[in-house]
Please model this.
Amino acid sequence: MTQQADVIVLFGGTGDLSRRMLLPSLYFLDADGFLPDGFRLLATARSELTREGFVEQVRETLAARPEGLDPAVWARFAERIDYVMADATTPEGAQALKVALEGRRPIYYLAISPSLYAKVAVALAGAGLAHDESRIVLEKPIGRDLETSRQINTAIGRVFDESQVFRIDHYLGKETVQNLIALRFANTLFEPLWNNLTIDHVQITVAETEGVGDRWPYYDEYGALRDMLQNHMLQLLCLVAMEPPSDMEPDSVRNEKVKVLRSLRRFTRADAQGSSIRGQYGDGMVAGKTAAAYEAERGQATGTETFVALRADIDNWRWAGVPFFLRTGKRLPERRTQIAIQFKAVPHSIFGAASTQDLAANRLVIDLQPDEDIALTLMNKAPGISQGGMRLQSLPLSLSLLKAYSGPNSRRRIAYERLLLDVINGDTTLFVRRDEVEEAWRWVDGVADAWAEAGLTPKPYPAGSWGPSGAFGLIERFGRTWLD
Ligand code: BG6
Model:
């Protein structure tokens, strides 16, 4: 059995990700008794702060959350915290951490810019801190393309073995994303239908109402393709499309995901024109409030897309001929993360003309955000009598996950809680392996190259709309419509 880690070192401990996600997640794990006895939290950053000053910052951050602070849990959690002011990219910085880490099994969580990953790894190795009992967690983006992601992975690989590297895609920590695995492989019902004989197409939508705001210095270099599609959306696609793994061992699952990524059909210049669209939000209204254009946030005109929709094809026996339509964007009318599996229509209607018009093909809709639900639409006889035979209606058979998850003791977990617990326990199943990241980049590089060749620039869309009109044209060209 893998040993549990006994200290987490948060690089970038005073940063945004630590404040919003990592510290609250660790606090909640502590509240629920998941942190091992003696587990320590060592935050490090360049900010000049005392331990007491940092602990007070953490207290304020946690107290400002809607869940509030439980005094007993806080007392226990605060005890675990240390703070070391250091520049972790330097030998002196790594030495400063060494005293606190002697004889320990550390997790190094790099909540810092990826441009610093290699330097921190080298400094840790130089101080003898990158030993067999350590683990390292890397946040996305790992690179900006295949080449730069290889450089980072190679630099990390010189210091840490792949089994010690945990590449986070926080979507894999979401309850409903894991539920996809349960839905597919803990039921006999779906597997015989999960193929091109029965499924017409798949839609994956990740819509956000938020804009880019002051994150533009990062975002402007990446855009929606690299920020969302390369990682979160391709992970969702992999979980929908992968073959059944033989068990839940980390490599069994990851092997299947890599096979899907390798089967993605390479984008051509013609696909760029006919099977994809880029967009950028202009001024508009979102949820009744005026929203500024990306260009205004950015301060100048830029060719970065804040919206992308495309058709992906998986060239294997199971999925040949089944298009996967992916769509993501910022400043859309609602927050929605959803996977829709659209089944084919019945081969022949036995009903009269009027009822045949009512017929809708079955659809399995998996809502991940903001509400979690899984619903299968089934055709049903409309109640009552009518002239000219029975009428039909489509009704959802819903798992009502919202209700199932809203008991008195339930709380919607932050995706990072599950993932941090897995790192503590050394379970890499929900983390992305090096070859997965690189295969995803290989395909995304193909899309970016095809866009460049075709000269495809982002089309404007008003904030608060569902993207450029071309996004509708794209799916309609293939005889389907978005599920809005
Ligand atoms: C991040 C992206 O990885 O995911 C952000 O960098 C995006 O741009 C975020 O807003 C979305 O995550 P979630 O969990 O809010 O859907």
